[in-house]
Amino acid sequence: MVLMVIVFLLLLFWENELTEDIVLTSIEQLHVDYPQNAAPLRYCNYMILQRVIREPDHTCKKVHVFIHERPQKINRICTSSKKMSCPNDSDLFCFQSETKFRMTVCQLIGGTTYPACRYQISSVEGFVLVTCDDLGPVDLQGYVE
User: Prior bond to 35 cis, omega within 30?
Assistant: First the structure.
């Protein structure tokens, strides 16, 4: 009986570890907020805490972008004819959206270690730049207004 409980706990722990890695790498989990959350006045602070968005060393992210568009429309960016070298990494290819998307840009204004981060909110419209694999968008590389 004790052995069964130990095996169950190990399986549960292992499953949670796998799930956490998947969630952390999902562009939809990190950057898509559609329909836009009706969060309190401090939208950025609320969303970044809710989605546990931080740097790998647990420091506050300097800038984070939320896209307010349907995931299906974001997935179509990978079929865009606008393929180019990514501005931040010339070894990667980026795809630019054909249309402008509504976004919220969260700029760090206070704090250094997560969760004590404070952000300023800016609403923008721009073309989204993403890297893609065979399954769709992998990472948001930025945007162009």
Answer: yes
